[in-house]
Write a structure and sequence with these properties.
It is built from 6 helices and 28 strands. A hairpin with a 4-residue loop joins β6 and β7.
Length: 383
Amino acid sequence: MSNTRLIICALTLACMLAPASAHARNRNAYITNNTDGTVSVIDTRTNTVTATIPVGAPVYGVAVAPHGRKVYVIADNTGTGGVSSAVAVIDAATNTVSAMITIGPGATGVAASRKKVYATIQATNTVSVIDRATNTVVDSISVGNNPYGVVVSPDSSKVYVADANFNTQNQSGTVSVIDAKTDAVTATIPVGVQPFGVAITPDGSKVYVANSMGNTVSVIDTATNAVIATISATNPFGVTVTPDGSKVYVSDDISGTVSVIDTATDTVIATIPVATNPIGVSSTADGSKVYVVNFGTNAVSIVDTATNTVVGFPIPVGGGPIGFGVFIQLPPEFAGVPGSKNCHGKSVSALAKEFGGLDAAAAALGFSDVQGLQDAIQAFCEG
């Protein structure tokens, strides 16, 4: 293989929006099973569980990192006599835990950017910041009361944290906005009562916040950091946005349904019965399916987004499944459109500039070596 063909595609926001075949883009779903302390791995092409990963503690939040090579899971043993939580790092190539990173007690949510991992720590009202290349905690950010869900903007420039504010009954929660470059809070946005799940549109223009006890979904304009719409929902918990940005799916925990929101009008256009206590929701990369994690039935339902109906049979997983966060794996994507001339010849300088060398880029993106990174780039550019 020539050097020219190995040195391809810069890692930019444009690359994340570049198309690839739908079949190639659908990957594994990683479902955290709270009471079992395991993660079920579902192949979204066959809808079968292909692996069960032991973590060794009750698990909750989950984040598949950009490029899909690492999965980060909150392992919280504070309820079983432990003194701290941890972030378990799963190698998606082997489906094994490769590291356990100790963080503060009572962790819940987790999200990953290209360089960092953000984990919410309820007991200390902070967000732990982890360097993905070294698996070390590099910062702790004070946010609002009882931080819960967390999401990173598509360009990795901002982090949005839902502050549930459990300690004050019927008082609104907030969303803390973090500048990912400085790891400092730049805004605090009032939302509804007890915000849990949080998701952002692919263009980064809107954030959707599920206010569980407020029975609403708040819509935040990221340009102004202001709530521009409030949508009625029943005990909303998890939330996901389809890759084309057209629809939002919200799990309604108590009612056993999923609400579908049209992002053009910010209105509910469908309500889909699923199963008992739906918690986590996540879209496939092609947007054709949404997976719904049902805590009460230890199973995952599949929603066809074209018809907004449940299809097939529920997929049995472990005990007490949560799947809170982005739990579906995405394939590597790089700059340029596969098959076109602008996909080649861009990558080395951009990757070296962003990460300080190709070795650092490979480590940060979860590849075992530079060759693995180069192979992924090559596969993307060949479509």
